[in-house]
Amino acid sequence: MAAPAMESAAVTALRSVLQRAHQAAERSGRPAERVRVVAVSKTKPVSLVRQVYDAGHRCFGENYVQELVDKAPQLPADIEWHFIGHLQSNKAKSLIAAVPNLEMVESVDDEKIANHLDRAVASIGRKPLKVLVQVNTSGEASKSGVDPSGCVELAKHVKLGCPNLEFSGLMTIGMLDYSSTPENFKALSECRIEVCKALGISEEECELSMGMSADFEQAIEMGSTNVRVGSTIFGAREYPKKAESK
Ligand SMILES: *Cc1c(COP(=O)(O)O)cnc(C)c1O
Description:
Layout: H1 9-27, E1 36-40, H2 46-54, E2 59-62, H3 65-71, E3 80-83, H4 92-98, E4 102-108, H5 111-124, E5 129-134, H6 151-161, E6 165-171, H7 182-199, E7 207-209, H8 216-221, E8 226-229, H9 231-234
Parallel strand pairs: 1-2, 1-8, 2-3, 3-4, 4-5, 5-6, 6-7
Helix pairs in contact: 4-5, 6-7
């Protein structure tokens, strides 16, 4: 397909991110299709998401329930949405009910939220929901992410105690300020070794979601199978007090 004369900046940026991700996968000795790029569209308008969709991309991420619940019905049903934000258990049901094409929740960090998601999926009768266990790899006090020492137990709970969820791997953000270091990526890989041993699964059955705009290539080289890239595709985010020109 020939590129239109005036391709949007987001589409140009997407193509560059995909190419860089594929090259990083090859450098790490893995086929490019083993690495997924989640285009993180939080705070960005539906029209911009649509441009990236029209360029052929299907995997998008959001981290606020209300924003995803608002956006998903305005966009095509073959989008695979990833929820990547902190999830309160009282929001699980409305998220599952409003977004039938929710592909994955990457941010399960305690048994209670796993149980709420499991029950919500059962009550709606959809296909099992893929989930990742979010791990706090920075040691910084934070509301999100289970301590590495607790990841095996939580992964076991999802795998054995939540029949409507499909345990799919581990996720980390890194530091509190959303930057990450090679130590964070290494810590998540070490969690994977423990989880695979405890659950009797292969590493291919345990994804690693790590890497964002600033460090996705390095994360891929360190084993990431799922990178979450927002601002490099969609542009810097603004959080205005008042919406000005929407
Ligand atoms: C916003 C967000 C991202 C994307 O961050 P960028 O630096 O803009 O790529 C990735 N992961 C999570 C959990 C996020 O909330």
